Amino acid sequence: MTTYEPALEVAVQAQATLGEGPTWDAARSRLIWIDILGSRVNTYDPSTGRRTVMATEQHVGAAKPRTGGGLVLNLRDGVALYDGDGNGNAGGTGFRWLHHAPVPGRRANDAAVAADGSLWAGTMRYDETPGGGTLSRLTGDGEVTTVLDDVAVSNGTGWSPDGRLMYYIDSPTRRIDVFDVSSDGRSVTNRRQFALIEEGAGFPDGLTVDADGCVWVALWGGAAVRRYTPAGALDRTITLPTPLATACAFGGPNLTDLYITTARVGLTDPHPMSGSLLVVPEAGKGLAQPAFAG
Known about the structure:
Number of domains: 1
CATH topology: Neuraminidase
CATH architecture: 6 Propeller
CATH superfamily: TolB, C-terminal domain
Strand content: over 45%
Low-confidence stretches: none
Strand order of the largest sheet: 1-23-22-21-20
């Protein structure tokens, strides 16, 4: 296992309360990331430095690009479609619910798009009650299937390069789990432990899978991002100056730059980078992420 201090850079200096969900939007050559508790969807174009900020009327757990343009938003009260490009307010013209299912005390959290264009969207209770969250699969025509219904904090979700495995995190378990994916991609079975984050190293949060099938995971409270081989062995740790790493994703024109979101919620003396979008250039080679087919 290699621990190293990378050429870490601040891509966007910010004070996000709970930065999350970095996603490379290949069609627009930009990174999308959110501030869950700040109810903001942010975009960043690394070639120009251009940034946009869009307000949402509710806490937003994830924002992913759609085929043909626009965004799909995992919001407190359900999943919605937005026709804009990430500017302005997501509650106005061009906003419509795909699945509206508010549950008192519950909010959206991380989400990911599978190869077939479906959205796998997580939820959690604000008080993080065990069993209070879910993981659901949504299609562009509004079909919803509950995949997991006994989750505390639904977090990182990603697929192996061949699509046969799905990795998933329920953060309080400290585990990265792995499932077998059905041939049609609609369901998962045979849940088992892929890796366990040891006591004192933080909690697993968001994850991404690279072109070699390695799993990268951000550690909440662990001030680090780790890489695990397809066999589940820890082989690389990127240490960070801020304790609350939330998620990571590869971006840039060649998908070689690792973007890392951070948070400052609950910190009494936050580091200047807390809440910023960070980047490690040439950290590896990512996989192209599908857009939501809806």
